[in-house]
Amino acid sequence: MRRLLAYVGRDLTRWVRGRVALVSHLVMPAAWLIFVGLALPIRFTDHYLDFITPGILVLTVLSTSLQGGGLLMFDKVLGFLNKFLALPAPRESILFGKILFITLRGAIQATIVLVIAVLIGASLYSPAQYAFMYLILFLFGALFSAAATTVALYLDDHDSYAAFNTMISMPLFFTSSALMPYSAMPGWLRAIAAVNPLSIAIDGMRAVTAGGMPLAPVGILCILIAGVLAVCLHVFRHVTV
Amino acid sequence: MTAVETEALTRFYGDLCAVRDLSLSVDGEIFGLLGPNGSGKTTTVKILTTLLRPSSGSARICGLDVVRNGSAVRERISYVPQEMAVDVRLTGRENVLLFARLYGVPGPRDRTDEALSLMGLSDRADDRTATYSGGMRRRLELAQALVHEPEVLFLDEPTIGLDVAARMRIWEHITSLRHDGVTVFVTTHYMDEADRVCDRVAFLDRGSIVALGSPASLKASVPGETVAARITGDFTPREIPGVTFMGRRGDLLTFAAPPGREGLDLIQRELDRQGIPVHEIGRREPTLDDVFIRSVGSQDPAMPFDDHRFRLILRRRG
């Protein structure tokens, strides 16, 4: 565990000192909040900002997770991974450290987006509600950073990975329940949105803001994480030795 | 306990044999693995550092099998790959401290200070490594490798891409490590550097050892003295009494000749007869280059450049 945290510390320091990346991932979610959340003429709710905020938080975590998928591949390409693999520390701590870092980074960026949302008029909730929202965001972040890392390790080429990243991020977002309720969707979209993992997290967070305790989404996310981590570990072991 | 021991170590990439039947025993010395690019040096080091499994044969580090006791082997070694990977956004101290923590050494901060001062980096320790020169980055990697006091240190092309002064400094540090009892296993294709520093060297060609011994004994095995001639155009080896043609590398021909002026004159005459322009010709003591050329023959590959093979090697190394 100490070793795992050393890896996380390394990535955190590198991230905080790379000023451009620190800000660039916040621009898109903030733009969504301000230009869509505040400006879109919507009929199904009188407080669209509150409706869209969970979706934007999930989008924030999604984009940092997908971007983070490439980190382990870069460590591999640049020679860091071989140095780490020759250390006596359990090799899996390299992988889990990376996933933990990406998830933490997503949670930090989601916090900044949340602050912006509140500043422009989103409702405040109780600490317990925020804690539950963070739990969902954390699980969602772990799920997508593990999945993204797996794909990047498997593709083993950053151009292909960047293409994959662009290809899936926006379609995933638009086919989720982020922007409109199921009742406002056409039938075909409703079918896709219902099985989209983004919707699971978003619907869970909406249930929290409505005062509920959404244990089912949390359970589903946990099951998905277990499956993706197993695949991820397999691919990691395959590419390392 | 022997630091590094291999028995019939073999590694295939598909049907390409990168290392063939390698048997070595290395202990308490600076051991140099020499050979051209693609001869199997990096593959050998990767097997010994548990980054790659052998296809057959075995290797032991301090008596521990690299396949079965991987993590115990990694407790005893350090590995510096040739890529030169330091985190440029971290300071020198942070780079070393990271490794101290990853190794789990007691008193990581003190050990970091010691390793930095050993490598002469104390006064720049708190600067970002983005400002370090190539030689400093390499020394920083050595500090990272030494922070846990390994028994065996593996260095893959430690001086590649560095200027002359930086190279000399790296070798000085490596030599002083040997005096502290560390076994150093180093690959390089700089023969002159290996000649000066290594206690023993092995020449690798297409995965097999073609010569093994101390630089002095290997050079002594080259008969007589060496005559080198720099020419342009084709040269057809012909019988010259007492002279052996050893090989050609680029525009440089080497011959083994009996001591004295006579051999040189014979060679000069033969070259003149073939109408070959000679830019330079002279006698010199044999070098490791001569040993290598004698062991493997001409270094210009007879086979055309094999793109598939080249890519396979590059990809597997990544």
What would the keywords be for this entry?
heterodimer, A: 241 residues, mainly alpha, 0% strand, globular, B: alpha/beta, Alpha-Beta Plaits, 2 domains, six-stranded mixed sheet
Explain briefly what this protein structure is.
The complex is a heterodimer of chains A (241) and B (318). Chain A is 80% helix and 0% strand.
Task: Characterise the protein shown here.
The complex is a heterodimer of chains A (241) and B (318). Chain A is mainly alpha-helical. Chain A has one domain (2-240). Chain A is 80% helix and 0% strand. Chain A has helices at 2-17, 19-37, 48-77, 80-85, 92-119, 127-155, 158-174, 187-195, 197-209, 215-240. In chain A, helix 3 runs antiparallel to helix 5 and helix 6 runs antiparallel to helix 9. The longest helix of chain A is centred in the N-terminal third of the chain and has 30 residues, at 48-77. Chain A is globular and about 60 Å long. The two termini of chain A are 22 Å apart. The relative contact order of chain A is 0.14. By secondary structure, chain B is an alpha/beta fold. Chain B has two domains: 4-218, P-loop containing nucleotide triphosphate hydrolases (Rossmann fold, 3-Layer(aba) Sandwich); 223-285, Alpha-Beta Plaits, CATH 3.30.70. Chain B has helices at 41-48, 70-76, 92-103, 108-118, 134-146, 164-179, 191-197, 215-220, 261-273, 288-296, 307-317, and strands at residues 4-13, 16-26, 30-34, 56-61, 64-65, 77-80, 152-156, 183-188, 200-205, 208-213, 225-231, 244-249, 252-257, 278-284. In chain B, strands 6-7-8-3-9-10 form a six-stranded mixed beta sheet, sandwiched between helices. Chain B has a four-stranded antiparallel beta sheet with strand order 2-1-4-5, with helices on one face. In chain B, a hairpin with a 2-residue loop joins strand 4 and strand 5 (64-65). The longest helix of chain B is centred in the middle third of the chain and has 16 residues, at 164-179. Chain B is globular, with a radius of gyration of 22 Å. The mean pLDDT of chain B is 89. Chains A and B meet through helix 1 and helix 4 of A and helix 2, strand 6 and helix 3 of B.
